[in-house]
């Protein structure tokens, strides 16, 4: 008996005895493409997010609400980029050699990043909504103590919501090849439905619904006011929202496919077909989702390139300061416009009263 068959039949030292014939790292083409994408993402995203953090902490003269949210987003994305070399090694070797504890921790941190990114973007949209639609109340949420408490609560909820990754992630042996794989494994189909439905609802449907409603209200409010010029902060936040949706949508589509797979009975043709789809697509869609963490620095670069010649390395800090000024300026303009409308209404009422008394 050759050494390959011995390795295949004997349990891997880092995995349990349960084996699986097909995993997300079974396809050499998919894993090679994923490793290549992750390498490019790391080279762009890690230094890019570090530069954003440095720009805000060291070069920004004032830290407004939007700047603080962008700082937290860069910290979340930068943390994920720091983990990328582990996943590159995993895809290149097509074997998980870092043990069960690292399997759980690394994928837990990935899920935390996903929730953190979309919920921070949601907070940006809510902040823009309040500043445009209810400018008189913007001072309530712009205090440092208030925004710090909100961010603390959001991070706490995110860390709690990511616990399923610690529960369901596990190292298992491959069934038809040597080595092991770190993947989500469940004893029951109901556990599959619970995990991925939770990710879909908390990580996409609820926050994106709030984002869409916020922007619909913002656009309606802008149409009603005299000041309809587009503002830099709106463009920037909208670009961040669309970019996140573009790169994370395939991941959540595969989540829905896996949920549908779990709902069909064992052995059915639809279950077999859906199983092939999600197993072959999971590595690629997860890798594409990583791109969103390196896309924001690129967006900020193009948004702030007009500042480069004048500000040098501080160009990004000036961009964030300018977006904050746009927000406050827009709030003041809307507030002034509301007061003007109230004054106009008062004048009309006074004219009517005068006409009535004359009659």
Automatic annotation (TrEMBL):
Any coiled-coil regions, as ranges: none
Main localization of the protein described in the UniProt heading: membrane
Bilayer topology: Multi-pass membrane protein
Domain G-protein coupled receptors family 1 profile: 48-300
Region (Disordered): 329-359
Organism of provenance: Ameca splendens
Stated family: Belongs to the chemokine-like receptor (CMKLR) family.
Transmembrane segments: 35-57, 69-93, 105-130, 150-168, 193-216, 236-263, 283-303
InterPro entries: Formyl_rcpt-rel, GPCR_Rhodpsn, GPCR_Rhodpsn_7TM, Leukotriene_B4_rcpt
SUPFAM superfamilies in the record: Family A G protein-coupled receptor-like
Name of the protein in its database record: G-protein coupled receptors family 1 profile domain-containing protein
Organism taxonomic ancestry: Eukaryota, Metazoa, Chordata, Craniata, Vertebrata
Places the protein is found: Cell membrane
Biased composition regions of type Basic and acidic residues, renumbered to the chain: 339-359
Keywords: Cell membrane, G-protein coupled receptor, Glycoprotein, Membrane, Phosphoprotein, Receptor, Transducer, Transmembrane, Transmembrane helix
